[in-house]
Model the fold of this input.
Amino acid sequence: MRDALGACNTVERVTARHSALPAASAEARVDADAEWWRSAVIYQVYPRSFADASGDGIGDLRGITRRLEHLADLGVDAIWLSPFYRSPQRDAGYDVADYCDVDPVFGDLADFDTLETRAHELGLRVIVDLVPNHSSTDHRWFQEALGSPAGSEERARYIFRDGRGDEGELPPNNWQSIFGGPAWTRTTDADGAPGQWYLHLFDATQADLDWSNPWVRERFVDILRFWLDRGVDGFRVDVAHGLVKQEGLPDYTPPEGSGSMGGGAFDDDITAAAPLPPYFAQDGVHDIYREWRRVLDEYDGHRMLVAEAWVEPLGRLAEWVRPDEMHQAFNFPYLETKWHAEGIREVVDSSLAIFGSVGAPSTWVLSNHDVVRHATRLALTAENPQGHGIGPSSPGQPVPELGLQRARAATALMLALPGSAYLYQGEELGLPEVVDLPDDEREDPTWFRTGGERYGRDGCRVPIPWEGFAPALGFSPTGESWLPQPAEWTAFARDAQSGVPGSTLELYRAALALRSEHALGLGTVEWIPGLGTDVVALQNRGVTVLANAGDAGVELLDGEVLLASGPVDDGVLPPDTTVWMRAD
Ligand code: GLC
Done:
């Protein structure tokens, strides 16, 4: 059924079998004719950890479908599914072995169709993850390359090079993998002799594709069409600042303190240009996205592309969302901003101005599957570069109550901002990072490739709690869970919070309902002066928003409180609290 190259077969395409969310859908929360993504709240589902219907301890597509109503009820506009494609799961599915099929661990294509249909019935759009920088070494493309001689067409799909040194015994350059260790692995030829090296910016099982090869570009257009024809509403593009490498692959050493994905310490100076790594943010990527945009524009229903690009400064990131490229990019400078009023005001201002200058909405995000959950991160007292994670021996251990209080305040602020916001599953329950996972349960390749020096990202990927007193907290009917869930998560379970005034879940629900009622996603930010440097004070479409990031209470303005992230008494806004008020 697949073409000889193992790509998504265009002949097999299910043209117009499914369309994206129909304009006439009564349930649709947004007018399908509008550019819905400009103001959407998009909920990230991490399939391994959302809901497990099969009972094997790993979440799956049927599990997601069964729980979709909860997301509609929460009030989000769309879901983004992290990868569910065929994969040996060496990097939790970001190591794709077939871009056009579902891994049996998650179900099959029919399960995907059912999920998508149900989501659309509920008025939820569906965004899937596209992983173009690298494929799994299990992918047929790579296996064929390995079985072919140096210089062959098959090898030209990836970045194979001869080694340095007399016998080619040294890697072709000094690049380090994002997950630790060298970014090159040497192959063995058919006769057993050491062969060429291949590049992998991530795990050794994730080989970088060669995007200067038109064959690779054609394959990915097929893949886009395969999913567009199935009716998906958009793509989250993994490592969208990668793909193209600088000619000659020059040596490069990242600056001290940079995050795993190439970003630096954003909040120090979000406008300063960092030196450009020769494997990230190369000019050549834009041509690829322009081609993809043309493909998406052929389809109805405003399909969209969102870039995962750890690029700074914001001005450079804005190049990804010029009118003929992607629609959105994750705002990681915002995510990396600490809980300080001045830094927050600055990043909000710059984001609105800079994305706005190219006609794109800003996005806002506080958590995802690659960072320490913000209910923990916002109360860390030591530097924690992205991707390093935290564990029992990390410095600056979190203070859980403070973290949750700040997280609730930070989310309430985020959801009041114009543009599009991303939520990560479990944050609506106030879940913290799991810090004390046993070493032998960890699965992130970062942990293994750094010999345990970096804990990696498992702590934010623990399966989420649905029912406090069910097996695996309602995640799986058998009680299995691929990462152990902390006993105290009983209190965080959805059923323990649903309908409970003041719970984190009800805060999210109320904020999303008010955001939609006042169309805050389509509004503007007007700063309110005079409340002191520690308060982020703004007005957006008739709603006054005050976030106190200082350590003392501040007198509240007069007026009706519409939403509060924590208790507010006697006209005082306590520290680490956000309120929304009706503006006079
Ligand atoms: C992206 C993903 C991350 C993955 C990496 C390699 O950053 O979000 O989870 O490990 O790409 O694909």
Summary: Residues 91, 94, 131, 202, 238-239, 261, 308, 369-370 surround alpha-D-glucopyranose (CB under 6 Å). The first helix runs from residue 61 to 74. The chain is about 20% helix and 15% strand. The radius of gyration is 23 Å.
